[in-house]
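Q: Glucosyltransferase-I, please. Structure only.
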Amino acid sequence: MHNLNGQQYYFDTKTGIMVTNRYVSDDQGNWYYFGKDGRALHGFQTVDGNLHYFNDSGQQVKGDFLYYNNDIYYFDKDNGNPVTNQFVNRDDAWYYFEADGKEPSLVSKPLTDRTYVSTNMAFKPRDNWLLLTAKPTTSIQIQVTSGLIVHLP
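A: Structure for Glucosyltransferase-I:
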């Protein structure tokens, strides 16, 4: 990679021709995309119909969280697409990401009977009960009574 006037470019090692409209990986397995003008892309970009995020150095974010404008995203470790409508297990913690790729807020008012999910837990309001899910395969119930949280076996 070459830095020219503050922009990153990549020149093919065999031909010396500037790479355009193409992904390139470095020796550490990091991926970059060079646009039609040959510059490395940055920020959110749609490439071949897929949304990706490239950090300030042009590296595609894969297998990692992105904290952007008060939202949290997680990008697939293989294809770099934002994870949507699914749980992700990272460092023994579970996270859920909605259709827009964002981790939803823990609480939305007014509470409805939809399921709310946030870092390490999901809950579904039902009357004054909350069904908490620590992992997508196990759950516990609690009840909030007079400001006290009661765990139910």
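A: Brief note, in case it's useful. Confidence is low (pLDDT under 50) at residues 105-122, 124-153.
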